Amino acid sequence: xxxxxxxxxxxxxxxxxxxxxxxxxxxxxxxxxxxxxxxxxxxxxxxxxxxxxxxxxxxxxxxxxxxxxxxxxxxxxxxxxxxxxxxxxxxxxxxxxxxxxxxxxxxxxxxxxxxxxxxxxxxxxxxxxxxxxxxxxxxxxxxxxxxxxxxxxxxxxxxxxxxxxxxxxxxxxxxxxxxxxxxxxxxxxxxxxxxxxxxxxxxxxxxxxxxxxxxxxxxxxxxxxxxxxxxxxxxxxxxxxxxxxxxxxxxxxxxxxxxxxxxxxxxxxxxxxxxxxxxxxxxxxxxxxxxxxxxxxxxxxxxxxxxxxxxxxxxxxxxxxxxxxxxxxxxxxxxxxxxxxxxxxxxxxxxxxxxxxxxxxxxxxxxxxxxxxxxxxxxxxxxxxxxxxxxxxxxxxxxxxxxxxxxxxxxxxxxxxxxxxxxxxxxxxxxxxxxxxxxxxxxxxxxxxxxxxxxxxxxxxxxxxxxxxxxxxxxxxxxxxxxxxxxxxxxxxxxxxxxxxxxxxxxxxxxxxxxxxxxxxxxxxxxxxxxxxxxx
Length: 536
Fold this sequence. Notes:
The protein is α/β, with parallel strands linked by helices. It is built from 18 helices and 17 strands.
């Protein structure tokens, strides 16, 4: 029996469930992963990735020291470098100074919108907060985004429009309190297996009834009371027909609608044409199934809706998500335990990255960059002169590389993302990557995008910060913006060879200072250690 030297408690670095992990470490080696039975999230259960997927920490190809390309790269001639012989190891000071010098040079030559950054849905709130803050305060641009644009961005927009919050309204563990729940656009047993275990337990042990709305006969259909096998892309007609039934049979929660919603009459009128027969003709789902599903959901004491990327990843993804939100608002199945609207996230911190402001339209806390009140609040909190922050929304993930070229993006900072795999047109993406003047990558491994970098900063896996591989003398690139921002100050302060942005050089900027909400109530930004970004 091996006994650990220590046990480190952390969170799983994979999907968005957020399972609690205990890393059993002996002689600086993780040899076992367990989970406490009392964990609120996963009750001691782990999927195969959570329990066994930690070998990447010790993989020989993992980058733990800064790397600089041996062959200088130029726009139009940039190449990929996968072989480690094409890189040389560098000290952290050399790598960070080079990044600071080149980014500042490009800023001075091409202006504020010449820099763009990909933030990381697997990094901590603090890392994402620091990167978006550096991009906005030093380079005065909102060109920062992350992979939410490629997954639940439509859900975020719909939830923000309707509820003012884009997170799950309830915890996944509350599924055991559901009488009825809908799963749509999610193969939960495969993509979120721990939540699927809890769904099965809710049905088998607590008498919950499941409605699956999905074109595929996914595993959860085996536990379903109803399966609505819609044609792909017909979510809006199906859920609108359910709303039609709820309205016609007066199954809606009149008290909730009167006190907590607006626009009910207009919405009810818009549902007139969405009869079950109309939806059947479009979706292929029998009208009787639609009626049964509507009655079952509306008649429950506690009902919830769970969805994944089968809902937002459409050209009309926002409308798909909005049709689910309408059902919850019609019936009042939100705002109580065991109810709610619950998008199941694919990355472990995609919600936190969005909350922390790693989006082109929002500061931390979803406060719009083009809202004058919000902009002035962040200028005061970040010690920026009035009018110093850019009021124009930035480029999204899918727009950044398309904007590479003269007058557009010239430098790219990639933290934990891989556009060379996630962009839809990889030939075009490759051509655009080759045109960049300077690329910085911060990641665990040299991937398809990192291979284009001029400087590569090794990174740490999310929530494995407390355990580093042997030989990593310092945090392997974690929160690099916090590290090289003081170096940027050397180039931006008065008297330096490079001129500072107006009003910035003679001010102090606390990169980690918490940002408080209106009136000082509650934190918007993460509470992290204070550190001066710019020296006086």
